[in-house]
């Protein structure tokens, strides 16, 4: 696996799984939209586990910043569906990033918040609308962008960075928080398999179909 | 002497009057609600109405104000719904004004919420010439610290007392003392009912959601409820009588606030009958979350406060008073005292494991002298239907039944810290419960009737349990608030928990 990762993380090409025969197939969370009730428990759980490092505890009373999740429940007509990053093997977001802030690690497409310049190129490139550029918060306070002020009152503007699903890579073990939190079992982690031929991906990802 | 079973002088059940119209306590913001109906799934009385996918409404006439819907709601106001951060901030402030929330609270706003009283209390606290008194429910001290990021169940009675003094209260009393008095009154009432012929089973009356549930769903069983006021109301009545005498102040000059885990306690405190000699027993109720708002608003560094004592005598409690905060606690406290009062012998073991547990219904038989006392504990109102149907049918031979409206007792109340992850509720409830039992185990006095301040209260002021003064101050009546479940045509859900054997 490490060999495949090294190959995919070539500095000269950020084109994800260009060599498909030996690629690490991405894992991603897939939603059964027909069953979603729109409770946003996935959004809240996502925010909760990604905020622990920022000093936010288990109770909502410990939250002093806007809830910024990495999964978005959207309504289409009468139906709800959670939308989040599909961890594309060709990662068009990474291809669009001018500062190489997006990388793939073991099939997970990750954004390096520190390196991100908030240019929104990845937002435009994402075919799923799974990326938002959001203000960065640390220890309950917004981080300001040095040198950038509002013209009207010279107030410092927040530093922003691209934010999207990272499959809870650094915050939880096992299932992503959204999958665990969903009361209707709408969400499921489709696990990518190493070296699985492309024609077998459907079986790997969607065994029910 | 007037007793609860003396119907000529103390009718336990009265018809509701026109003035008893229900003021909504639980609200659902139609601009936020997505119609997921998870709130309807936890409502024990089917008070949440609406189609899936559409904003829900709360039927205030059926709602028992337990607040479990507020606890489960995960639909929050997202900034992404607005065109700009400025617009999001303006809309947030408008929502907070509509909810009467303090303006500087940063936490997310959810679709389901309850009526807030903090602004009313902070306004009243500035009024000069009054003695400001506060009491705290047993379960606040094991949950408040969670609002400041501490682990579940962190025990902080001393810091809570210190914080309340810094918020401006002149006396920091404890509902646990009221719980000790409840045991004296309710235990005596049970003994009297058992020895003098009922009506049995006798139900506890500490939980206002349960009392309201009985008034709406089973009004014909109201004379089975103990006539005792809840510990909050009992302490409130004592604060403006006994406490006023000790402090040499007029009851009219006392402003009495209670910190509760419960969203129904404000409704209870507002009930017309909850007053003594023209003065409200308790003037205002705040939830655990509201107390946390207040502490943060005032910039108090809660976790670094020194531990301070509650004031004496109405703040000195036994371990039995403490365990009122968990399901089975009232029963255990009552048995600790009832056993010794009835048999004049020491209870062989203080920790009564047979009433401790997490099931919706627990039953046990206790040998008390020559009496085989049959008891039951109900946690969560959805579990009460089957048992009450049996009482209605005359098939329930229990002597004493504790009912708490919330799933794990007051530690899981609607006003307790709201958790972002549903899966952490079990962990939180267990930690809070363990902390309460630990606090009891560490108490020097663990039986209500051995609390020296309770003994002093009866010697100096009340006389005897169920005596004239007690009857006047500490007992109440209940109101029929509808035709009852059996008379209603609608199908009342029991949420599928009917498989408990009562025998």
TrEMBL record, chain A:
UniProt keyword Zinc-finger present: no
GO MF annotation, one: metal ion binding
Domain 4Fe-4S ferredoxin-type residues, every copy: 107-136
Claim: Acyltransferase is one of the keywords in the record: no
Residue spans crossing the bilayer: none
Keywords: 4Fe-4S, Iron, Iron-sulfur, Metal-binding, Repeat
InterPro entries linked to this entry: 4Fe4S_Fe-S-bd, 4Fe4S_Fe_S_CS, RnfB_subfamily
Annotated PANTHER family: ELECTRON TRANSPORT PROTEIN HYDN-RELATED, OXIDOREDUCTASE
Protein name listed in UniProt: Iron-sulfur protein
Organism: Paenibacillus kribbensis
Lineage: Bacteria, Bacillati, Bacillota, Bacilli, Bacillales
């Amino acid at each position: 696996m490490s060999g495949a990762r090294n190959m995919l993380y070539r500095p000269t090409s950020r084109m994800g799984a260009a060599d498909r025969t030996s690629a690490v197939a991405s894992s991603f969370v897939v939603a059964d939209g027909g069953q979603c009730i729109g409770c946003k428990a996935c959004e809240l759980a996502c925010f909760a586990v990604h905020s622990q490092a920022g000093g936010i505890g288990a109770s909502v009373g410990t939250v002093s910043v806007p809830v910024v999740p990495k999964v978005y429940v959207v309504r289409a007509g009468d139906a709800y569906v959670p939308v989040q990053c599909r961890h594309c093997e060709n990662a068009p977001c990474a291809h669009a990033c001018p500062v190489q802030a997006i990388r793939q690690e073991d099939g997970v497409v990750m954004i390096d918040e520190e390196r991100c310049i908030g240019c929104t190129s990845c937002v435009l490139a994402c075919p799923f609308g799974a990326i938002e550029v959001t203000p960065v918060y640390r220890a309950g306070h917004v981080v300001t962008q040095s040198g950038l002020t509002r013209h009207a009152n010279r107030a410092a503007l927040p530093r922003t960075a691209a934010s999207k699903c990272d499959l809870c890579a650094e915050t939880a073990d096992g299932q992503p928080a959204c999958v665990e939190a969903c009361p209707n079992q709408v969400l499921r982690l489709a696990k990518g398999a190493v070296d699985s031929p492309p024609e077998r991906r459907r079986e790997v990802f969607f065994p029910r179909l | 002497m007037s007793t609860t079973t003396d119907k000529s002088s103390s009718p336990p059940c009265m018809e509701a009057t026109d003035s008893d119209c229900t003021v909504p306590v639980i609200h659902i913001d139609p601009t936020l609600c997505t119609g997921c109906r998870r709130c309807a799934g936890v409502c024990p009385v089917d008070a949440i109405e609406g189609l899936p996918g559409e904003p829900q409404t709360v039927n205030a006439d059926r709602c028992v104000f337990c607040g479990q819907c507020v606890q489960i709601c995960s639909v929050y106001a997202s900034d992404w719904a607005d065109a700009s951060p400025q617009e999001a901030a303006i809309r947030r402030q408008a929502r907070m004004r509509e909810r009467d929330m303090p303006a500087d609270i940063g936490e997310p706003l959810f679709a389901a919420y309850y009526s807030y009283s903090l602004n009313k209390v902070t306004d009243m606290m500035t009024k000069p010439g009054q003695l400001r008194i506060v009491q705290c429910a047993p379960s606040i001290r094991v949950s408040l610290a969670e609002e400041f990021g501490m682990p579940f169940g962190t025990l902080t009675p001393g810091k809570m007392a210190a914080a309340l003094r810094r918020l401006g209260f002149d006396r920091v009393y404890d509902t646990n003392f009221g719980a000790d008095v409840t045991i004296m009154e309710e235990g005596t009432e049970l003994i009297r009912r058992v020895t003098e012929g009922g009506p049995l089973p006798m139900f506890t009356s500490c939980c206002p959601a349960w009392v309201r549930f009985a008034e709406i769903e089973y009004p014909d069983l109201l004379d089975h409820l103990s006539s005792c006021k809840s510990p909050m109301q009992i302490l409130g009545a004592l604060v403006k009588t006994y406490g006023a005498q000790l402090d040499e102040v007029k009851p009219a000059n006392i402003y009495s606030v209670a910190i509760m885990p419960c969203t129904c306690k404000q409704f209870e405190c507002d009930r017309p009958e909850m007053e003594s000699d023209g003065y409200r027993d308790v003037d205002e109720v705040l939830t655990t979350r509201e107390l946390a708002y207040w502490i943060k608003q005032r910039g108090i560094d809660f976790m670094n406060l020194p531990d301070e004592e509650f004031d004496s005598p109405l703040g000195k409690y036994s371990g039995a008073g403490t365990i009122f905060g968990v399901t089975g606690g009232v029963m255990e406290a009552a048995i600790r005292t009832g056993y010794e009062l009835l048999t004049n012998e020491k209870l062989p073991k203080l920790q009564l494991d047979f009433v401790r547990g997490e099931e919706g219904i627990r039953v046990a038989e206790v040998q008390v002298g020559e009496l085989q006392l049959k008891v039951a504990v109900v946690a969560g109102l959805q579990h009460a239907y089957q048992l009450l149907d049996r009482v209605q049918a005359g098939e329930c031979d229990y002597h004493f039944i504790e009912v708490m409206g919330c799933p794990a007792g007051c530690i899981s109340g609607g006003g307790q810290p709201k958790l972002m992850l549903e899966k952490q509720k079990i962990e939180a409830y267990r930690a809070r419960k363990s902390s309460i039992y630990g606090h009891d185990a560490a108490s020097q006095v663990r039986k209500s009737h051995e609390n020296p301040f309770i003994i002093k209260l009866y010697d100096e002021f009340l006389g005897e349990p169920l005596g004239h003064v007690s009857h006047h101050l500490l007992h109440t009546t209940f109101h029929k608030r509808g035709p009852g479940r059996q008379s209603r045509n609608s199908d009342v859900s029991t949420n599928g928990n009917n498989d408990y054997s009562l025998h």
